[in-house]
Amino acid sequence: MQKQKLLLMVTVLCGLWLTPMVKAADGGAVPQRADIAEQYRWDLSDIYADSAAWEADFSFLDKHLSDFESFRGRLGESATQLLSCLKLQDSLGLILENLYVFANLKKDEDQRVPAYQEMSDRIMGLYSR
Fold first, then answer.
1. Domain membership of residue 69 as a residue range
2. Widest Cα–Cα separation across the chain
């Protein structure tokens, strides 16, 4: 009885281990993006129409991150000063989030495209500043 249970367990484990291999050998390849129906693809145009629009916001954000320097050591001076800094943080933060999401979703569409990998790397660099 004990041997039968052990044999059954080994058979099940081998079956579980071999299933992915059989599936891959049986044409279980990931379809190319061009082969996927349009309705199942991400539509990122709501975030940015194209890479040029992304580049424009990236340049804008890169230029305006230094605006925070004007608040260094001055946030406690007045509520107005603090509010101005928080408004700047909100407005630039929204742009930063859009840049990040677009770049990483484009990269995830096809990780073989170096341009989107570079976009993702660039926004991560900007994010860390």
1. 35-127
2. 81
Q: How far is CA 44 from CA 8, 85, 113, in A?
A: 50, 30, 16
Encode pLDDT of 40-95 as tens digits: 888 999 999 999 999 999 999 999 999 999 999 999 999 999 999 999 999 999 99
Task: For residue 18, give the DSSP letter.
Answer: H
- DSSP 3-state helix, strand, coil percentages of the chain (rounded to 5)? 75, 0, 25
Report the pLDDT value the prediction gives residue 34, as an integer from 0 to 100.
83
Give the span between the Cα atoms of 129 and 124, in whole angstroms: 9
71 Cβ partners below 8 Å, 6+ apart? 81, 84, 85, 88
Return the pLDDT at 117: 96
Prediction pTM value? 0.73
Q: What's at 115, amino acid-wise?
A: A
CATH number at residue 49: 1.20.140.70
* 12, two tokens: 């099940």
Structure token digits, residue 26: 């049986």
